[in-house]
């Protein structure tokens, strides 16, 4: 009897152990399945490249460039669901064919009220000043993406309500799950930022010239030399003074501190707008605005932060004789002149007509036709519509 009892106890213990092991295995399998079903992929953009001459760039550690995040960001960029009336998307004010500007003096959003600023081109955003918008009020691309969504005149969207609506969309739930795990406000702005990081323009005729693939025309070459030179009458060096604010390769403002911001003489002290002062509250920064990239400048009219100049000819005319004095006017503009100074009140580059035409000819070499038509940056909804129409035509 004792042996039977011992045998029974041992059998029960073995059964309990087996049961515990089985439960543990089930838990491990279930949690592993859950992990892999909820695991965010890390599909880095291995084909992502940028010109060496642009210099180093940094991607936030908490928002790596992945195929999934860029795909999601591209869809969000073109989707009017981001606006309160479902009619305005990021692409409304940033059209690819116009180098992601909109052709208006100042943009118009859901309210119908003209905004304060001209739409800046979204190109090569990982380089240049690390403060975004004309007045530098945003410290990152992620932060920059949120501003227009919540702005009362731009998109007027409650970000939390937007999260709720995106969660109701099967496609978005899938894309967010793949990119960031779930639909969140942070995921929205991260995805938009990453899509914009991929908007790299680097195949203009100027880029091809830098790579030694083509030569510029004599007129374009004269314009390039003028663009790159600060005038110096002591050595008879004529220049357009452009490079003092627009870096040699990127043609955007400089990245160090606030070096990428400048007062370029648009207004006198009485009419001077706040500009960078909005961010710093430093009077020395009143009237300073971000120097934009000149990449694709021929298609991004009108020009300046308020769109006051309709043509490149008007821009050159401003620098050649339309400069207005103010307390914060850039000394580089005051000093730049192609003839010896004869009177302190008048500020002018004193370029001749041939030189102005040459500079404009060079600016046209900055147009990147490949960038303006790159399907990777295009509206994904139009692609889907085209695919559906093609599929339908095959069955008709």
What do you see in this structure?
With 396 residues, the chain is an all-alpha fold. It is built from 15 helices and two strands. Strands 1-2 form a two-stranded antiparallel sheet. The termini are far apart.
Shape: globular
Low-pLDDT runs of 5+ residues are: 31-39
Query: Could you report the average pLDDT, rounded to the nearest whole number?
Result: 89
- Range of helix content: 40-55%
Order of helices and strands: HHHHHHHHHEHEHHHHH
Keywords: Heme, Iron, Membrane, Metal-binding, Oxidoreductase, Peroxidase, Signal, Transmembrane, Transmembrane helix
Subcellular location: Cell envelope
GO molecular function: cytochrome-c peroxidase activity; electron transfer activity; heme binding; metal ion binding
Organism: Rheinheimera salexigens
Mind sketching the topology for me?
Layout (H helix, E strand, L loop, with lengths): L1 H37 L28 H11 L12 H4 L47 H10 L8 H9 L2 H11 L4 H13 L7 H6 L7 H10 L33 E2 L14 H4 L8 E2 L21 H11 L8 H5 L17 H12 L4 H5 L6 H16 L1
Antiparallel strand pairs: 1-2
Helix pairs in contact: 2-6, 2-7, 4-7, 9-13
Key features of this structure:
mainly alpha, Cytochrome Bc1 Complex, Chain D, domain 2, 2 domains, two-stranded antiparallel sheet
Structure at a glance:
Keywords: Heme, Iron, Membrane, Metal-binding, Oxidoreductase, Peroxidase, Signal, Transmembrane, Transmembrane helix. This protein has helices at 2-38, 67-77, 90-93, 141-150, 159-167, 170-180, 185-197, 205-210, 218-227, 277-280, 312-322, 331-335, 353-364, 369-373, 380-395, and strands at 261-262, 289-290. It is mainly alpha-helical.
């Amino acid at each position: 009897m004792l042996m039977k009892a011992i045998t029974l106890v041992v059998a029960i213990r073995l059964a309990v152990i087996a049961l515990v092991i089985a439960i543990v295995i089930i838990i491990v399998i279930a949690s592993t399945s859950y992990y892999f079903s909820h695991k965010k992929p890390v599909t880095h953009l291995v084909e992502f490249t940028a010109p060496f001459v642009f210099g180093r760039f940094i991607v936030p550690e908490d928002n790596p460039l992945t195929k999934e995040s860029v795909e999601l960001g591209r869809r969000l960029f073109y989707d009017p669901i981001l606006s309160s009336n479902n009619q305005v998307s990021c692409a409304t004010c940033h059209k690819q064919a116009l180098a992601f500007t909109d052709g208006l003096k100042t943009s118009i959003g859901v309210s119908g009220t003209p905004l304060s600023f001209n739409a800046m081109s979204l190109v090569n955003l990982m380089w240049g000043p690390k403060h975004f918008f004309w007045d530098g009020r945003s410290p990152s691309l992620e932060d920059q993406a949120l501003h227009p969504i919540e702005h009362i005149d731009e998109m007027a969207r409650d970000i939390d309500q937007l999260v709720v609506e995106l969660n109701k969309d099967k496609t978005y739930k899938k894309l967010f799950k793949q990119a960031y795990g779930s639909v969140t406000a942070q995921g929205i702005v991260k995805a938009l930022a990453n899509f914009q990081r991929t908007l790299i323009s680097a195949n203009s005729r100027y880029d091809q010239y830098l790579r030694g693939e083509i030569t510029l025309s004599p007129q374009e070459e004269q314009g390039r030399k003028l663009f790159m030179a600060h005038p110096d009458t002591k050595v008879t060096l004529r220049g357009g003074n452009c490079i003092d604010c627009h870096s040699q390769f990127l043609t955007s403002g400089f990245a160090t501190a606030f070096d990428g911001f400048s007062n370029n003489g648009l207004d006198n002290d009485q009419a001077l707008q706040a500009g960078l002062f909005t961010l710093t509250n430093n009077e020395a920064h009143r009237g300073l605005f971000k120097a934009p990239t000149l990449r694709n400048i021929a298609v991004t009219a009108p020009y300046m932060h308020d769109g006051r100049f309709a043509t490149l000819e008007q821009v050159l005319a401003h620098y050649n004789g339309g400069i207005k004095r103010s307390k914060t006017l850039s000394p580089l503009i005051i000093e730049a002149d192609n003839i010896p100074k004869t009177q302190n009140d008048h500020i002018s580059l004193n370029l001749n007509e041939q030189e102005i035409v040459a500079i404009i000819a060079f600016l046209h070499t900055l147009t990147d036709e490949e960038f303006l038509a790159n399907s990777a940056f295009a509206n994904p909804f139009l692609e889907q519509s085209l695919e559906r129409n093609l599929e339908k035509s095959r069955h008709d």
